[in-house]
C-alpha cells in the first residue's frame, strides 16, 4: 500500500483550501495566532489531514507571533480522532480522508513513520518562541485531550471534560500526550486517568494542575483576551527565554540549569542595555 508522506514543509501558511481540508481555521492578528478546529457537526473530530495541516501551520508561523490559541468551534474542543477512520476503508465523517485502520496493512516501519508525521501536528506547539494556549470548552477526548496537553497552557471553561479514551479502544495515547500528562499531574494520577479512560471535569482539572480556570463558559472569550494581554505585556525575548528555561528545567541538573539562567540573563542585560542606549 502507499502511505502518505509528511507534507513538504513550506514557508507559506496553508491556504484556504488546505485549511478547509484539515477542517481548521487560522487567524493571524499581529502577535496572536488563533487556530480553530472547525468541524462542529462532528464535535471537531480530527483526521490525519488535520494533523498534517497543523504541522504546516507550525512550520510557517510568522516569527512575531507570541501567543497561539487553539480552540474548537461550536462549544466543544474536540471529540478526538474521527472514529470512522478506525474502520478499515473508512474515509471519515466528511469523506475523502486517509484511513487510520489502513495502517494495518503497512510494515512496522511504515506505521511508525505515519504516526511520526501525525505527531508533528502536536509537537510544534511546544516551541518556546510563543506561548500556546488550548481553550477547552465541552469535550476534549483522546486526540482532543492530547492536543490540549500539547499546549503550554490549558484554559478550561466550567463545562470542560477531559478523557483519555484510547485504552478503552484498545489503543495507547500516541499523539504526544503522555509526557505532558505525567509532567502535569504525576505518574499515578496520569496512569489512573489513562487506564480507566474516565472523564476529568473542569474543577478537578484545575485542582490537579491540568488546566487553568474553570471559567464560566459565557466569560471565556474575555478570559482568553485577558490572558493574551497578560502573556504579551513583557518584552518578547524575556518571555521566550523564560519559557525555554522552564520547559526543559525538569530534565536538567541544577548545574546545567543555573548555567543556562546565567547565559539567558546575560543576553537579557545586553538587550536591556541596548534599549536604554547603554
Ligand atoms: N468521530 C467521528 N464523528 C464523531 C466523533 C468522532 N470522534 N464524535 C462525535 N461524532 C459525531 C457523531 O457521530 C454525531 O454525528 P451525527 O450527528 O451524524 O450522528 C455528531 O458528531 C454528534 O455527536 P453526539 O450526538 O454523540 O454528540 P454529543 O454531544 O451527545 O456527545 C461526545 C459528544 C461525548 C464527544 C460523543 O460524540 C463521543 O463520545 N464521541 C466519540 C469520542 C471518541 O471515542 N473519540 C475517539 C477517542 S480516541 C482518539 O482520539 C485517539 C486515537 O488515536 C485513537
UniProtKB/TrEMBL annotation:
Would you say which domain of life the source belongs to?
Bacteria
Q: Name one Pfam family in it.
A: ECH_1
What PROSITE patterns does this protein map onto? ENOYL_COA_HYDRATASE
User: What keywords sit in the KW lines?
Assistant: Lipid metabolism, Lyase
Q: Which family does it belong to?
A: Belongs to the enoyl-CoA hydratase/isomerase family.
UniProt protein name: Enoyl-CoA hydratase/isomerase family protein
What organism is listed for this UniProt entry?
A: Nocardioides marinquilinus
Amino acid at each position: 500500500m502507499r502511505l502518505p508522506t509528511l507534507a513538504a514543509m513550506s514557508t507559506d501558511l496553508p491556504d484556504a483550501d488546505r485549511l478547509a481540508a484539515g477542517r481548521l481555521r487560522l487567524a493571524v492578528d499581529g502577535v496572536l495566532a488563533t487556530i480553530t478546529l472547525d468541524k462542529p457537526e462532528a464535535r471537531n473530530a480530527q483526521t490525519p489531514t488535520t494533523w498534517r495541516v497543523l504541522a504546516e501551520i507550525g512550520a510557517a508561523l510568522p516569527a512575531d507571533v507570541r501567543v497561539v490559541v487553539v480552540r474548537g468551534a461550536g462549544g466543544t474542543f474536540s471529540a478526538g480522532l474521527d472514529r470512522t477512520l478506525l474502520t478499515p476503508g473508512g474515509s471519515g465523517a466528511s469523506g475523502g480522508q486517509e484511513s487510520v485502520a489502513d495502517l494495518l496493512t503497512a510494515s512496522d516501519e511504515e506505521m511508525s513513520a505515519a504516526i511520526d508525521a501525525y505527531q508533528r501536528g502536536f509537537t510544534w506547539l511546544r516551541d518556546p518562541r510563543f506561548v500556546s494556549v488550548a481553550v477547552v470548552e465541552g469535550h476534549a477526548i483522546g486526540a482532543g485531550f492530547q492536543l490540549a496537553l500539547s499546549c503550554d497552557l490549558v484554559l478550561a471553561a466550567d463545562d470542560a471534560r477531559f478523557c483519555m479514551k484510547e485504552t478503552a479502544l484498545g489503543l495507547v495515547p500516541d499523539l504526544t500526550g503522555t509526557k505532558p500528562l505525567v509532567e502535569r499531574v504525576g505518574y499515578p494520577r496520569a496512569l489512573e486517568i489513562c487506564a480507566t479512560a474516565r472523564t476529568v471535569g473542569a474543577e478537578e482539572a484545575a485542582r490537579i494542575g491540568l488546566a487553568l480556570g474553570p471559567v464560566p463558559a459565557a466569560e471565556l472569550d474575555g478570559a482568553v483576551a485577558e490572558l493574551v494581554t497578560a502573556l504579551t505585556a513583557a518584552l518578547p525575548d524575556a518571555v521566550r527565554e523564560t519559557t525555554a528555561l522552564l520547559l526543559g528545567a525538569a530534565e536538567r541538573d541544577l548545574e546545567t540549569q543555573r548555567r543556562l539562567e546565567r547565559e539567558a540573563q546575560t543576553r537579557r542585560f545586553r538587550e536591556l542595555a541596548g534599549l536604554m542606549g547603554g
